[in-house]
Design goal:
The protein is mainly alpha-helical and 372 residues long. It has 15 helices and no strands. Helix 3 packs across helix 4 and helix 8 packs across helix 10. It is globular, with a radius of gyration of 21 Å.
């Protein structure tokens, strides 16, 4: 067997083993949380699809269909292995594992020497993170699709094949038609990043990518329209969106702070000021603040030549946090599940722009292990 094929085989085997291990780990975490109606509905919808109701005629789905990103994974697993209650926990765990491994792969593609252990910020969820990302698995499939889209962008930059743009557009259309959050965490940030680079260089940058994004928006709208007029599922949609009032913005900021602190295991309010009381939470808070400081340093470092991914990551964080703060969407701390992808982009941005000497790698890995 040629050497490069052996390397590919070894690499794929490593990812497969990591996928199995992570899926089992996340499933064990998810199983600590009771079932709820949000994820059970996805299981029942998948069961109806396997019984022949492919377009879920007669179903009123959630505010978004989640058809490709959340429902179809249940269909695939149940279609291959039959029905079992454990799939309620297994499928979200598999989506989470896939998201982590795609993020790791993206880090390796962007920065082979990057400090990928920053991914521990999302790969090692706290108890609150388990409830947000694994029960129910809302938006997780969309985040998997977005990371796959980023990998396709880098593959196109390296190989320059038109077919990759076709695969990219098809995948993005399916993700957009399934979950509207893809617009705010990927499409709008990438369009904005391409615009910033075009202004800086005074010429159109990433023209083919911009064209694919715009075409995908149009095709996704057309697909949803066709499905709606051909007996498919019904999506009630969100209420009419508007800017929140002053009092609501204050509440949103409170939920934002509380949700972020809970997600990173750093919620210390109301606890005894001691090592045994709030000690662990304060350590986690320090880790989060250091990560946030690192992102600010990257954004302000004029010596760095930020590229499409860097600007898109920063815009993703800004757009998502801004939408969370100034809209009427947040309800409680669990609403911070909308910010999971900005956390992923934060970790990738830090990993990409953190260059450590060999002696510091062991310290970084040990710190990530302690955090986990």
């Amino acid at each position: 067997m040629p050497v490069f094929l052996k390397k590919i085989s070894t690499s794929w085997l490593g990812y497969l083993v990591a996928f199995v291990v992570l899926s089992g780990f996340y499933m064990s975490l998810a199983a600590t949380v009771p079932l709820n109606s949000d994820s059970v509905s996805a299981v029942l919808e998948a069961q109806d699809i396997l019984h022949g109701n492919v377009l879920l005629h007669g179903w009123d789905l959630s505010t978004e269909p989640y058809y490709v990103t959340e429902i179809l994974p249940y269909v695939v697993v149940a279609g291959l292995a039959g029905w079992h209650l454990s799939f309620y926990y297994l499928v979200p765990a598999m989506l989470m594992a896939t998201m982590v491994l795609l993020a790791f792969r993206l880090c390796r593609v962007m920065a082979p020497r990057g400090a990928w252990f920053f991914l521990a910020l999302v790969a090692a969820p706290t108890a609150f993170g388990v409830q947000v990302m694994l029960i129910p698995c809302i938006h997780m499939g969309a985040y998997v699709g977005v990371l796959a889209c980023w990998l396709l962008i880098f593959a196109q930059n390296q190989r320059g094949r038109a077919a990759i743009w076709g695969v990219f557009t098809a995948l993005l259309v399916l993700c957009l038609a399934s979950d509207d959050i893809v617009k705010y965490c990927f499409v709008f940030p990438v369009l904005g990043a391409a615009g910033v680079l075009s202004v800086q260089k005074r010429r159109l940058e990433h023209g083919w990518l911009v064209l694919c994004l715009l075409v995908s928006l149009g095709l996704a709208h057309a697909l949803k329209t066709v499905l709606a007029h051909n007996g498919a599922f019904h999506v009630p949609g969100l209420w009419t969106m508007s800017f929140a009032g002053q009092e609501r913005i204050g509440y949103n900021l409170s939920v934002l702070v509380s949700g972020v602190l809970h997600f990173f295991g750093a919620y210390f309010f109301g606890k005894e000021f001691s090592l045994h009381g709030s000690g662990k939470e304060l350590v986690h808070l320090a880790v989060f603040l250091l990560a946030l400081w690192g992102v600010v340093r990257i954004a302000r470092n004029r010596a760095l030549r930020l590229d499409l991914f860097d600007y898109a990551a920063l815009l993703c964080m800004g757009i998502m946090v801004g939408a969370f703060t100034f809209s009427q969407l947040p309800i409680d701390d669990a609403s911070t599940r909308y910010l999971v992808f900005p956390y992923v982009m934060m970790a990738l941005l830090l990993a990409r722009h953190t260059v450590l000497p060999a002696a510091s790698w062991a310290l970084g890995l040990a710190g990530a292990a302690v955090y986990a």
